Amino acid sequence: MKHSSISMIKRYWCNTIILIIVTCSPASYAHLDAHVHGLAQVKIAIEDQTIEIEISAPAADLVGFEHVAKTESGIKSVADLATKLAKDADLFVLKAGNCKLVNHTINTSSMTNQNQNQNSGVTDKVNKPSHNDGHSEVIAHYHYHCKKIENLSTITVTVFEKFPSVEKIQAMWVTSTQQGAITLNIKNNIISLR
């Protein structure tokens, strides 16, 4: 299973890079890593009976600030954020497929003086703290197992309801038969997998 998971991750990133190249104009290549407030990214890889979902967003949109939390209230806000992000059912609705969350990793390390990743279950690798240049990002990763993956028809992204500062989400997905990209917002928040 571990070899299959590593293989899936390699294919996911390879397909994601191809997807970015295909969907971006040459003029926008220089801005692929741009930090834009109000804009989050969701990357989804589906293979066999496994779904990997990763969301990344500017910390300011999720917790209200981007600096390293030093005060008691700031540290509590970061902990509260990790708790909110751990509730995957409040962020994603996987229609059909009989999918269950296996584990997740929440990386808020760019907002703390130490690596305070919140995780559940067994994780392959914990993200290391990133350099904080004043533009902190929060990354959450979710790993699902689906008994009837062939029935999975849509993923509804409900992040907008929990984090109103997120105005748009660039979503990209790859499966064994297709790949796609869409910009989601509060009125258009469904990714169709069929």
Q: What level of helicity do the residues show?
A: 10-25%
Tell me about the biggest sheet?
7 strands, mixed
Give the integer mean of the pLDDT values. 80
Overall 3D form: globular
Count of β-strands: 10
Q: Whole-Å distance between the termini?
A: 27 Å
Give short descriptive properties of this protein.
three-stranded antiparallel beta sheet, 10 strands, 24% helix
Task: Give a written overview of the molecule.
The protein has helices spanning 2-23, 59-63, 72-86, 159-162, and strands spanning 39-47, 50-58, 92-95, 99-107, 118-120, 137-146, 154-157, 168-174, 179-184, 190-192. The chain is α+β, with helices and mostly antiparallel strands and 194 residues long. The chain has a 7-stranded mixed sheet with strand order 5-4-6-2-1-8-9, sandwiched between helices. A 3-stranded antiparallel sheet has the order 3-7-10, with no helix packed on it. Strand 8 and strand 9 form a beta hairpin.
